[in-house]
Amino acid sequence: MAMARTHIICFGNELHGDDGIGPAIHAELLKRQLPPEVRIFRADVSGLAAVHCFEQCDQAIVVDAVQGFGQAGSIHILQAEDIAEESTLSIHGHGVGNLLALLPHLIDHPPRVKIIGIELSETRAFANRLSPPVARAIAPATERVLEAAR
Q: What's the pTM?
């Protein structure tokens, strides 16, 4: 029997304040020894360019900043349907919500998706630092991601 393959996909832009939580957790995961069936991806954009991150795996763990689920820095385990599809397009394309909604139409065998969402405090263009509550969430959120990948 083949081992289940898990992809950890960290979304975000480290040049937009708390939106950089995904890249920060990606950096932490790179320091860890992960099982061979786990692959880590950094997806700086959430549009269709990230579809390949969801291919050829049984489970995808999405790491991203979220808003509207709790206090800044709080960590949430969510399902794909918990993330709303975005109603507008940005210059970066569709958001994570749109991407997750489109996955069944884009790939033959979409994986089970679990989201580790970290509540953001603020996003600002060209602010390459996380707010204090979000920065404090890096270690516990990384542990949650690792638990989800087991």
A: 0.89
